[in-house]
Design a protein that fits this description.
- By secondary structure, this protein is mainly α.
- Among the domains are: 32 residues; 52 residues.
- The chain is 67% helix and 0% strand.
- 0% of the residues are buried.
Length: 150
């Protein structure tokens, strides 16, 4: 009877350990889903890539700021990009001819466009303005002064 009890007891012990391991694995899978971890890792990787890109841009801008820190570089930048000149100098732009490039001085500079005569200008005409000019008495001027009450 002792050997029968021992064999039953050892048989139940054989199933307890694998059952405990299976239960532990099931708990880990349900509590720590693998897809969530992988998604978080991909988000983390993309964020790290963005941070490294911003750091590279910062390095580039810092080096560009160092090169533009000198007075000569600032003067050159002002001349090339903003068409600025030193006091006492004048700026002369040489434009390509109209036949070769298709660009004329009139199409580049709006200062070459003809002026619009005041008689041909299209101005909006207000009906209230003409009505007010028709009556120029004291009461009409007083009503126009307090028009904001309407």
């Amino acid at each position: 009877m002792a050997t029968a009890r021992k064999s039953i007891h050892t048989a139940s012990n054989r199933w307890v350990f694998p059952l405990a391991i299976a239960t532990g694995v099931a708990m880990l899978v349900t509590w720590f889903p693998l897809s969530g971890i992988l998604h978080q890792q991909s988000v983390l990787n993309s964020t790290l890539a963005q941070i490294s890109a911003v750091r590279q841009q910062s390095k580039n801008l810092t080096s560009q700021a160092r090169t533009l820190d000198s007075k000569a570089a600032a003067t050159q930048l002002a001349r090339e990009q903003y068409q600025l000149v030193n006091p006492g100098q004048s700026l002369i732009q040489v434009l390509p001819s109209g036949a070769s490039g298709g660009i004329t001085a009139q199409s580049v500079d709006p200062g070459f466009q003809p002026l619009v005569s005041p008689s041909s200008a299209q101005l909006p005409v207000s009906t209230t303005a003409t009505r007010h000019h028709a009556s120029s008495g004291f009461v009409a001027r007083l009503v126009r002064t307090f028009e904001f009450w309407r």
